[in-house]
Design brief:
alpha/beta; Rossmann fold; 7-stranded parallel beta sheet; 7 strands; 38% helix
Length: 255
């Protein structure tokens, strides 16, 4: 990554998931990355724990439930005790379904439930903006910094032609508005911070697994491919791109 400074400090939230874990792997492969902070609800998850064991000096795990503001604040405090600045923050978590809690994408209006709406908004919309709120002191410095949240094309209001999936679509649309508002404010307060919403495409992870049968041939991406593309988008973004929504292919997605 050409635009990460030497001794860069980066944070991946949702680091135990398929995309988040791959972000950690690929960022650790960048020689200019000094340390990857990896936030996860279960930092002892098999993949993340193995990665931490392989990189004990460069990967620092954090126990974070992103639906808990207290957890987010504690993680920010711990990071701040270890470094005065962050150069990249990636929010790589999301909630589409949870069979244990009866959460599933709605096919019709009668399927909408308050519990599902609340759960989706807490993870997909509220968590990213609360993370930004608590990390702002670490992003406010003189070097280029990127604050990127994984969104989804189904959260685009202008691109919604199929309907359904009420909770997930609306929560991702709300996340996009938070990202845009954050970009506007930081354009006044911290102009070196670039705020991005990113669509990874349909990626082979547990989040998409129940819906992969309907994915056209060649459109189901590996985590390695999706993350590599997203890191290229992040690396190529300039100040003029702050507050914009990009797909893995670098094409802008309509709000």
């Amino acid at each position: 990554m050409n635009h990460l400074p030497d001794a860069a400090e980066v944070l991946v939230m949702g680091a135990s998931g398929g995309i988040g874990l791959e972000f950690c792997r690929q960022l650790l492969a960048q020689p200019q990355v000094s340390r990857v902070w990896a936030g996860a609800r279960r930092p002892d998850a098999e993949g993340l724990a193995a990665l931490a064991e392989a990189h004990p000096d460069r990967l620092q795990t954090l126990a974070v439930d992103v639906t808990s503001e207290a957890d987010i604040a504690a993680a920010a405090e711990r990071i701040g005790a270890g470094t005065p600045r962050l150069h990249l923050v990636v929010n790589a978590f999301g909630l589409l379904h949870d069979e244990d809690r009866g959460i599933w994408p709605e096919k019709r209006l009668e399927d909408v439930r308050l519990e599902s709406l609340e759960a989706s908004f807490r993870v997909n919309a509220f968590a990213p903006i609360l993370i930004a709120r608590h990390l702002l002191p670490l992003l406010t410095h003189r070097e280029r910094a990127v604050y990127a949240s994984l969104s989804a094309r189904v959260g685009s209001i202008g691109d919604n032609r199929l309907g359904g999936w009420y909770a997930y679509r609306a929560a991702k649309a709300a996340q996009n508005m938070f990202t845009r508002g954050l970009a506007v404010e930081l354009g006044r307060r911290a102009r070196q911070v670039i705020c991005l919403a990113l669509h990874p495409g349909t990626t082979d992870t547990p989040l998409s697994q129940p819906f992969q049968a309907r994915v056209p041939e060649g459109k189901l991406f590996s985590t390695e491919y999706a993350v590599g593309c997203l890191l290229a988008v992040i690396d190529g973004a300039g100040r003029e791109d702050s507050g914009r929504f990009f797909g893995w292919d670098g094409e802008e997605v309509p709000w």
